[in-house]
Amino acid sequence: MDPHEDVHQTLEYRTDAALIRTLPYGLLLCLFGLFVFALDDDAPLRIVVAGSVIVAAGLGVIAIAQRPAPDRDIDDVDVLDLAPLAWALPRRP
Predict the structure, then answer these.
(1) Span 7-31, mean pLDDT?
(2) What distance in Å separates the CA atoms of residue 20 and residue 61, rounded to the nearest whole number?
């Protein structure tokens, strides 16, 4: 354990940071879908459908990554007293 770590620091779990990490995957999916379109000048229908699905999936991931995260403020911090629960813990000899 780091001796300089502040144990009284309030931790915040940021959903917006977790969502923005998926943004590069969406961009790569779009790039791959466009690459599928660029493979052939006269592409068969299956290739066109596959490329369209890949680009749509990439745009979907980008849309999810760009949506605003809910605002979660910490309202209150409670203290739990564990002394009354000491009777429930097993005693070691």
Answers:
(1) 77
(2) 10
